[in-house]
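User: Okay, second chain of the day. Same drill as before: sequence in, structure tokens out.
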Amino acid sequence: ANWAYHDVIVNAPMAFYYFLGTFFAVVGFLGVFGNIIVVWVFSSTPSLRTPSNVLVINLAICDILFSALIGFPMSALSCFQRHWIWGDFGCQFYSFVAGITGLASINCLAVIAVDRYLVVGQPLAMLNQSHFRRSFYHVLIIWTWACVWSAMPLIGWGEYILEGFGVSCTFDYLTRTTWNISFNVCLFTFCFGMPVSVIILSYIGIIRSIAKNRKEFSSLTAENSSRARQEIKIAKVFAVCMTAFILCWVPYATVAQLGIYGYDQMVSPYTAELPVMLAKTSALWNPVIYAFSHPKYR
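Assistant: Same drill. Structure tokens below.
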């Protein structure tokens, strides 16, 4: 990982650092602004204050924290100085918070996918709304799971290091010790592979339920039928959100896997930084998707 510290600062064009700093600042601002609007709309609109939407508000809070961290002051100011200016403690703090919010986001999307499956897959039971207490339990589990995995490098399993052009920090996916490899394999399996699998399986279940329950939908009253169609539309909106999130993170996950499985010669500052840039945009797409697609949000 030597390139992450000194060589990059000498070799990378100054203009690229300024571009990177501006990019992180703009993406961070848009992510914070857009998701604050999401929290306000979903918490202040009576028809949107439902147990299911507690998860949506939680997702927006994850994205606000994630966006605030990558914007000013940490990443952007480091870019303008052309090196990480916050020291080792700052690197650990940045990585820990970014880890928590990123992992909480994908786990929240997985829980939302299961929730959509249960709602759409049981049209006759839709009047029996889930309780707010259950949703808050789900939120607690999501944050606890994210905190546990993000804390591991702080207590010795895995490590946090500078990444890409040395202006942000992340999990160490380059050091090839057995201890570090085992952490990264488990992290990828349980914190990326498992949530993505849950999302995919949930939406396969949604598609099968819609096809299977067409007759059941037709037997509903006009009011319940309208509600069923609306729930299906909302499921489609979240399908787009989940697809966008996964597409933003797949290149980053791929680079991490290349590093951890010994193909680190393929991981240059540029091939490491470009997926980081894409991943950092993951927090700003949901407000845009809601604005154009969500039947109640609009």
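Residues 1-10 have pLDDT under 50 and may be disordered.

User: Thanks, on to the next one.
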